[in-house]
Amino acid sequence: MEVQIFGLKKSAATRAAERFFKERRVKIHFVDLAQRPIAKGELARFTQKFGLTALLDVEGKAYEALNLPYLRLSEDSLVQKAIDHPELLKLPLVRMGKFLSYGDAQGDWRTWMDTAK
Q1: Distance CA 58, CA 24 (A)
Q2: Which of 13, 35, 50, 96 has the highest count of CB atoms within 10 angstroms of its CB?
Q3: Crossing angle, helix 75-84 and helix 40-50, to 10 degrees?
Q4: Rg (CA), the chain
Q5: Structurally, what CATH architecture does the domain formed by 2-116 represent?
Q6: Do 112 and 99 meet the contact criterion of CB atoms below 8 Å apart?
């Protein structure tokens, strides 16, 4: 069993996800989005399942700082902004095989663990 976590080291939710899986001895492949931006195709997996608006942290400081509430951007432009500024996303983005989640989704993660047994 292996899980891939996309997040930022400074994000408390990302650290909580890492801790959750480490406590359950699940192998983690962590991608620090501050060091390496998420691939457009990888982000597309999450946007296809949840929609871009669900993934964006519209209440966050980064969203306001980039003046996004006042701009009318195409979805492609918003995706590029999210790639360039990962703090716009509700982190962490977690993938375990075909399962995907965003944010603090411990209930989903527990279900994945039960399914994988």
Answers
A1: 32
A2: 96
A3: 120
A4: 14
A5: 3-Layer(aba) Sandwich (3.40)
A6: yes
